[in-house]
Amino acid sequence: MDRKSEQIIQKLQERIEQVDWDFSDLDTGVVLNIGDGIAFVRGLQDVQANELVRFENGTFGLALNLEENQVGVILLGSDRGIREGDTVYRTEEIVQVPVGDNLLGRIIDPLGEPLDNKGPIETKEERYIERVAPGVMSRQSVDRPLFTGLKVIDSMIPIGKGQRELIIGDRQTGKTSIALNTILNQKDQNVKCVYVAIGQKSSTVVQVAETLERYGAMDYTVIINSPANDSAARQYISPYAGCAIGEYWMDKGEDVLVIYDDLSKHAVAYRTISLLLKRPSGREAYPGDVFYLHSRLLERAGQLNEHYGGGSMTALPIIETQLGDISAYIPTNVISITDGQLFLDTEAFNSGNRPAVDSGLSVSRVGSDAQTDAMKSVSGSLKLELATFEELSSFAQFSSDIDPETQKVIDHGNRLVELLKQPAYQIINHELIILSMYLSEYGWLDKLEVEEVRPFERYMQEAFQNNHSDLLDELAKDYKLTEDLQKRIDEVMETLLEDFKVMRNG
Fold first, then answer.
1. What global pTM score does this model have?
2. Cα–Cα distance, 73 to 68 (Å, whole number)
């Protein structure tokens, strides 16, 4: 280094030392630009990612983009009353949501404020909406069944407590109905439920609340609502808020069910935010971290081991597809994160086969581990039977000459399809579903005409509930079909079938 360079450096150091640095404004910033629910703020040098900041008019925002010269803030309220040049203050707080049993039976917004006109909610604890998912060593395998009350699911695509099972299908194919049916069937099962409505119509959420109220399910359910007219920021945080509320009970050793309805709209809200924040876009204009958006949410569900309390959180995320395209960006992302999917078929729904679950495309990666022994014994071959039936049916359309064996398989398949039909919002005990599947497994179904299947099923279920509850109690005790129990069930079935035929013909 020459003499001249040394002199220049020395002069610069002297100038720096003479500067009167003012650190008083490090915790404040100034609004540079405001609009579309996004504010760009200069200053806030020490602000953290996802930290709450407060504007002059009292509106809160979330610091999402931490850039060199500015901070991108998404507003959690209206941008009215916020002007360029306004001061922005750090809160040094991360977004939290109230948790606890007092939330049960209530409808709240993503920040925990009541929306049901039932007065304020008193809670003693709050939780951060973002939390690191439980580690591998704190978990255990999923092996306890979560009964949905739906024959097609509990028999072929079982869901376990702590599982993440995706519900996927086109618009108006019964996705929400399956989720609500699952909530209804948690009555008296000691399972707390959280329903997160993201970007839904207000009328839809009202219908959901009314349905849950009508069946007494609101006693163990909390609804988090961020409607379609809500800001993208509030829609963005709503599933994380719902997850935090569920984690409170899971950490206490309880079982929790969380419904995210739906994550397609959640991804769109995040895409909107990202584009407004001028983040670089990728496939389908989504930002590059959209996979992390849902993975960090869904990984928080699971079954904790006994050392960590033994609680569980089951996640049922919902994804809406376009024209049955499950290979789109968001569907494939969520499929890869979850432990299976329930695929709903539009054609089946329109033809009256409801719930319209496609047993061929649907899968549960937990499988029979989350299934009772009795259900295993009566449903082991169902998927194969349905697959064979569908294949033979498609070929039979082009042939008028069908051999007796093929016709027998087709006839059995038609009866089985009829057996799996079920109305929405039906609360049904697991032992009754086992008996329904028993009809197929042990040949009773083939003794009925197709149009007799559902009437006989109802007749059989009522008869067992009213006159043979001892058999149901024995079955429900440990959900095992012993030879003795099977023999007694067959005797009852024989009598019921004879009486039913006489009644139908008489």
1. 0.91
2. 14
